[in-house]
Amino acid sequence: MSTASNSNPLFSPVQIRNICSKNRLAVAPMSRVSASHDGRASEVLVKCYVRYARGGFGLVITEGIYTDDAFSQAYHHQPGIMDEAQAAAWKPVVDGIKKHGAVAIAQMMHAGAMSQGNRFVARTAGPSAVLPKGKPMAFYYGTDAFQEPLAMTEEQVADAISGFSFSAARAVQISGFDAVEIHAANGYLLDQFLTGYTNQRADDWGGNTEARLRLTLAVLKAVKDRVGSEVPVGVRISQGKVNDDRHKWSDGEHDAEIIFGSLADAGAGYIHVTEPDARVPAFPGTDDSLVKLARKYAPKAIIVANGNLHVDDRALDALEDGADIVSVGRAALANPNLPLSLASGSPLKPFDVTMLVPIAIIKERELS
Questions:
Q1: Helix H or strand E encompassing 303
Q2: How many CB atoms lie within 10 A of CB 41?
Q3: Which class is 3-367 in CATH?
Q4: What is residue 163's three-state secondary structure?
Q5: Deepest in the core among 74, 140, 292, 355, taking most CB within 10 A?
Q6: Rounded-to-integer distance, Cα 244 and Cα 223, Å
Q7: Domain boundaries in the chain?
């Protein structure tokens, strides 16, 4: 590390419950859909994640990992952790990350109505029978259109909660992950329950913002109960979705107060806030970014900021807004050694949209 990096707050350590990261730079979750057909992490994924740890990142968060053999799988070749075999396949990934001094975090994900490739069931399921906006992503093996989902029964909701909690326990106890992140963002199941136009339920899981947030809080409690108090359990939150990137919470800052305050009160190990650009105002008529609002309404929580923050001054702006950690996605794809480059003042490679193509597809092309 250069002398300049020694005074740069991005390179100071940060504590999350019982774990310490050597710096404040994290790899954001990014779907690589490069697992085996039966959902086991592959050698390709080992190499993919270990290179980030070797490149100096303090924390490496995995792509979304599906949690059950019902409705949770989002894509073909998505890795899972629904059983011991899948959990064991993650161990080389975790060991490689830790070997280079980084913190390994497993993101638990349920696709809900946004599933576009599930080897277990033919139908999708979500809070209500509402057709998702947009179209599936072709480069993630998507078809021409989403299905109208089944409205989940109480039993199916309970199964989803159980899937999150038992999968989180496998991630910690078998795979060896240091922490767990609950994916409650970007239009997937928990975000579908939080969003008014996708959640039209009349039971305890639907209604106002507090009611629509209940499933996320129930999952957080179940996971924390299962993994124990020593393991940090973070929650990823967004307004926009992969199929509706301009969505805003209908009650603006009041919703931010409810969501961030409730997550902090429920004991989230950290709150991972993601926006297309984390520095811009969260809502019309306000100057505050969503990161700043998260700090305002969850003053004692660890805040992770994500969204166009890969350049040094942008990342520092996020810290000024109240973030404790900055996570980067596309820039990490282009620069797996981004922390080392920032520390030395080396130029960064530009992101190329072709880098979003899943590694599995690239490998198939090389072998064909």
A1: strand 303-306
A2: 29
A3: alpha beta
A4: helix
A5: 74
A6: 28
A7: 3-367
